[in-house]
Design a protein that fits this description.
GO terms for molecular function: carbonate dehydratase activity; zinc ion binding. The chain is mainly beta and 241 residues long. The protein is built from 4 helices and 12 strands, in the order E-E-E-E-E-H-E-H-E-E-E-E-H-E-H-E.
Length: 241
């Protein structure tokens, strides 16, 4: 995970498209390289650059995430969508089975604000209505939005969760949720899809079928010796569930 500690280029664009809230980097932003990932079960020498991030959440606290972990469905899940840089754009990448990697992050609720998440949550009022977008200049990093503990995650070959649900996605799902406050969660629940409150925008749970799901565990001795986020996806121990 390279560049996750760096501030995203500005301006960013926050969009309510009537189905979700999405954050992208403006095409007019300084064209520095965006955060990217490689390694793990991905093919050698393939790099995947961040395209956008978006959210799925529930109207109630007992639902919202698109993955269920150990019987728990968290109230919100964030997806950081990455494109294989071998393809010129996301549309082209979606035509290839190695085209896309999505990093999924769960959120759980607590009384206290998450100060790092507040930079984003405070901007949502500007896109309350469907089909609105807002240029923003947030000093925000991807690392501030993902769990501090990234030692354990699951990965599998799957599909997009929105139509046409193409089977071109490698999923990376972090096991540790990120805490946000009830008030921060509610900033999503006052958004509109044009007719009613935007929410419950998650796909129903799908059968695993013949998919192989792998879990990566980082041993503490290795972690202490190599405390570097770029190693998080490489040269570690994998277990087939």
């Amino acid at each position: 995970m390279i560049g996750y500690h760096d501030f995203l280029p500005t301006p960013q664009i926050l969009t309510n498209n009537g189905q979700t809230v999405k954050l992208t980097v403006s095409k007019n932003a300084t064209r520095e390289r965006l955060p990217y990932i490689f390694g793990a079960t991905l093919k050698q020498n393939q790099h995947y650059e961040m395209e956008q991030l978006h959210f799925h959440w529930g109207i109630k606290n007992n639902r919202g995430a698109e993955h269920v972990l150990n019987g728990v469905r968290y109230p919100m899940e964030m997806h950081i969508v990455h494109r294989n840089v071998a393809y010129s754009n996301l549309s082209q990448a979606t035509q290839h089975e190695d085209g896309v990697v999505v990093v999924a992050i769960f959120f759980h609720l607590q009384d206290e604000h998450n100060e790092f998440f507040q930079a984003l949550a405070s901007k949502l009022a500007g896109v309350q209505w469907a089909r609105t977008e807002l240029p923003v200049n947030m000093s925000i990093t991807l690392m501030s939005l993902i769990p501090s503990n990234t030692d354990v995650f699951y990965t599998y070959k799957g599909s997009f969760t929105t139509p046409p649900c193409s089977e071109v996605v490698t999923w990376i799902v972090f096991a540790t949720p990120v805490p946000i406050s009830f008030r921060q969660m509610n900033t999503f629940r006052v958004l509109s899809n044009g007719e009613e409150t935007l929410g419950d925008n998650f796909r129903r749970l799908q059968d695993i079928g013949q998919r192989k799901i792998y879990i990566r565990r980082l041993y503490s001795a290795f972690s202490n010796k190599y405390n570097d986020s770029r190693l998080n996806l490489t040269n570690l121990s994998w277990f087939w569930l």
